[in-house]
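Repro:
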Amino acid sequence: MANSKLIVVEGPQGAGKTTITDFIRHKIPYTNLYRLSGSSDSSLAGKQKSVEMYTDLLDYIEKLQNKSINLLFDRTFFTEAIYCRLGFKEFSYDDAFDEFLSRFAKFDFDIYYITLYLSDINEFEKRLARDDKGVFKYAKFSVESSNIQQEAYLKMSDEIKEKYGDKIHVVNIDTCVGLEGVKKQIEELLS
């Protein structure tokens, strides 16, 4: 029986992943936080690199089952699949994604898949205008890009819930409710 949590936080740029994963990391004792960005190689060779990277990651997660350590991820292979679905890469990732998701759902953790989103897409403009936002090659910051990503993430969330809702807690959280509102939802979810 699981004695640890495995939490993945996904969502479009500007939805609040960094803020929320920092909060979770400090709220739940014995939680390791990982921030991943995927592979920068968009060619077919990049797919193999990505598959190897996420296979190694899943091997690592598997080794940490029942060690009383919580694992928290700000992006994982879910983002790689989204970027491929949106055409940012030259390859399809659906086969690897399906294999990874099946394996992910079998881990002996209390598993949470959290999608952050903004119900008011105009909020993206404010959040993406911050000076401290990084720039990623495949998803230039723009309201339009973030909104398209958001739609893809919410669709993926529905797919995961339909297929693995009995094994993975799948939750969508609207960050337009404000930071305190989101924190309260997270605390209730993970308590």
